[in-house]
Amino acid sequence: MDQGPLAEIVAQDILHSLSQAVFVVGADDCILEVYAQAEAIFERSRESLIGSPINHIRGIGGEALNIVTRSREENTPLNSYDVSVVPPIGDIELMDLHAHPYGTEGVVLLTAQPRRITAFLEKRDHMEAAARSVGGLASMLAHEIKNPLSGIRGAAQLMGRALDDKNIKLTELICKEVDRIKGLVDELETFSNPSQAVLEPVNIHEVLDHVLNVAVAGFGAKCIFRPRFDPSLPPVAGLYDRLVQIFLNLIKNAVEAAGPEADITISTSYRHGIWITGRSGERIRLPIEIAIHDSGPGIPEHLKGHLFDPFVSGKEGGTGLGLALVARYVSEMGGTVTCDNHPHGGAVFKIQLALYEDAK
């Protein structure tokens, strides 16, 4: 039996079942066809959409034309996140756009995924209020933490004088970590109102190498770490100590989730076409991706979407502050952090960072 018509019907059903709006855009930047939820989202009929210029799409016309044009010219898929819908369409105030060249005739497939921002903004306000509460507690504890740190550093220096060259690296590591922790404690004293630090060029692999050395020497001694780095990556815009804190938190989290003999892959890569809109409306390119994939059971369903909230933890006795701090630090550096379950098992955390050359 001829499966052609049946396959076409199934493909049409799949397209129309998607939650996004799907547009087929011609070489003249006019809409050739629409699928899925295009009519419902943009509140226009299929007949009125077909043939109209892509930049006439309600609320996102300019951004839609921009990403379609760049995708066609660069012949590569592009993504644009947190695109403002002006004016909003009902309660839809943001959309994520994805453009993908199709064929050789200049046709581009464009999808628009609505995002309702009101709940996100309310949630962010709650997170910032919780962070201020944490800041008050941190200020009180900071003084008490500094005193033992000085003793630890002094003891490590004395030990270093009695050790051979092979083991002296461990005492140097202790001193370096104590100095870093002291800097973090100093910052915690003003956690409730952090200053706007000037971002610096940071070699992300130097950060990750240091973090892995700390992990292997301590909490991850029995784990398998698989670094898969792209050595050609340019410097990111960030702060060295904060990046160390971010990845220490994430890797320690992965070890605790997967167990003492965890298998953890840390990869770096350059991703084209990742853009977000900053709080002041500027477009920010985030091409540097760092992914941490563990061999654990994955993220429980009831915690998805809440892992970066303060005081939310999937660990017995956990404070729920580690990932909240990760989210805050990444955000202050203009990046993003996401998490999900990997198709082959375990959880994967991804951080997107900007290039230093773009931040200058």
Automatic annotation (TrEMBL):
Organism: Kordiimonas lipolytica
Taxonomic lineage: Bacteria, Pseudomonadati, Pseudomonadota, Alphaproteobacteria, Kordiimonadales
One Pfam match: HATPase_c
Keyword ATP-binding annotated: yes
Record-annotated Histidine kinase domain positions: 140-357
Protein name (Swiss-Prot/TrEMBL): histidine kinase
EC number(s) reported in the record: 2.7.13.3
Kinase is among the record's keywords: yes
Keywords on record: ATP-binding, Kinase, Nucleotide-binding, Phosphoprotein, Transferase, Two-component regulatory system
Catalysis performed (reactions): ATP + protein L-histidine = ADP + protein N-phospho-L-histidine
